[in-house]
Design goal:
Ferritin, 2 domains, disordered C terminus, two-stranded antiparallel ribbon, mainly alpha, elongated
Length: 353
């Protein structure tokens, strides 16, 4: 909240005006939409490619030449489609980068402006708190001290709201991951482990790990939210103690002596507590980001379990191709045609995806 300048004195960071804040919000909103669109395109490319690789794995286990050649053509089409998608993403990235640089320059411009430019009520109130803490000998009325206390109350509410949102999000994602794990468990219990169902079993193991990690992250989140809650409650009680000590004064009365000293000590303690709580909320946001990644990964793993839980029906006498050397015997000609059509080995094709 309070920062030191190069000469050791405390200065308050400039708050943008309402017009400037509106411009910042527009830029931030545009950047957020661009990023979400890019993530959506990347996710589609990943899911499409992943699904095709899994299909190729299944088809390569058969010796049906028609099915293999069909998958070759499908792979070529998907690679061409992905190439167009990635080129669009490169253009989107350049656009996003341009907007981010605009936002950076705009913020730097605002920060360089003097504090008295287009001052708004919020900035004025925050300066009241700064002045109160920095200048103990400056006359302050009860009304001005109450205004300074409201700044601290507002920041306490904001910190508490951030902690609560992250806790609620963590709990929701954990319940969804548990539901996915339970569904996957029921599916896996109904099938035997074999080469054809290996992908499903491996995906279930990944889901199991995800559930354990998310549970640990959520437990950590709950503990941190508890710390923030206790700090906020304590700080609110201290501010109430200051206000109670001002009870005998009228709004315009100058407060001196013990009530003023008491409120100064209380407000400084609340500022320190807020700094600690804000550091904790930063950690909470990081944990929420991790939980979100494991949640998305769990959805992908569950889809793999659903897709590969049932063994495929193979014709009599079908052989399984070796992924490195190709099938033996009569199937080797099909393998050679497959490699000739793609110019790639199976291992190389998998590495592309």
């Amino acid at each position: 909240m309070l920062k030191n300048n190069a000469h050791g004195g405390e200065v308050h960071p400039r708050v943008p005006s309402e017009r400037e804040q509106g411009q910042l919000n527009v830029l931030e909103g545009e950047i957020s939409r661009l990023i979400k669109a890019e993530i959506s395109k990347l996710t589609q490319i990943y899911l499409g490619s992943n699904a095709l690789v899994l299909e190729i794995n299944r088809v390569l286990a058969d010796t049906d030449e028609g099915a293999i050649l069909a998958k070759v053509q499908e792979a070529k089409q998907l690679l061409e489609q992905n190439e167009r998608g990635l080129e669009a993403l490169r253009r989107d990235y350049r656009t996003t980068e341009t907007r981010v640089q605009e936002l950076k320059r705009f913020v730097e411009t605002i920060s360089a402006r003097p504090n008295n430019e287009e001052r708004n009520p919020q900035e004025s109130m925050e300066n009241e708190l700064t002045s109160f803490l920095r200048s103990p000998n400056t006359p302050f009325s009860k009304e001005r001290i109450i205004k300074a206390s409201e700044i601290l109350r507002r920041e306490l509410r904001e910190v508490s709201a951030i902690a609560s949102r992250n806790e609620a999000n963590a709990d929701t994602k954990m319940e969804l991951v548990k539901e996915m794990f339970e569904e996957s468990t029921l599916i896996i219990l109904g099938i035997k482990k074999s080469q054809e169902t290996k992908l499903a079993h491996d995906a279930h193991q990944g889901l199991t790990r995800n559930k354990e990690i998310v549970e640990a992250l959520v437990n950590g989140t709950t503990g941190l939210v508890g710390v923030v809650g206790r700090e906020v409650t304590k700080s609110q009680g201290e501010i109430d103690r200051c206000v109670l000590a001002l009870g005998e004064f009228q709004d315009k009365d100058i407060v001196e002596g013990n009530p003023r000293d008491l409120c100064t000590e209380i407000f400084r303690g609340v500022v320190l507590s807020l700094d600690d709580s804000k550091q904790i909320t930063t950690e909470l946001v990081l944990k929420s980001s991790k939980i979100e990644r494991y949640f998305v990964n769990s959805k992908i793993l569950l889809n793999i379990v659903r897709r590969h839980a049932k063994p495929s029906k193979r014709g009599k006498g079908a052989r399984k191709d070796d992924e490195n050397d190709g099938p033996s015997g009569s199937g080797s000609s099909t393998w050679k045609r497959f490699r000739k059509s793609t110019g790639l080995s199976v291992r190389r094709l998998r590495s592309i995806f």
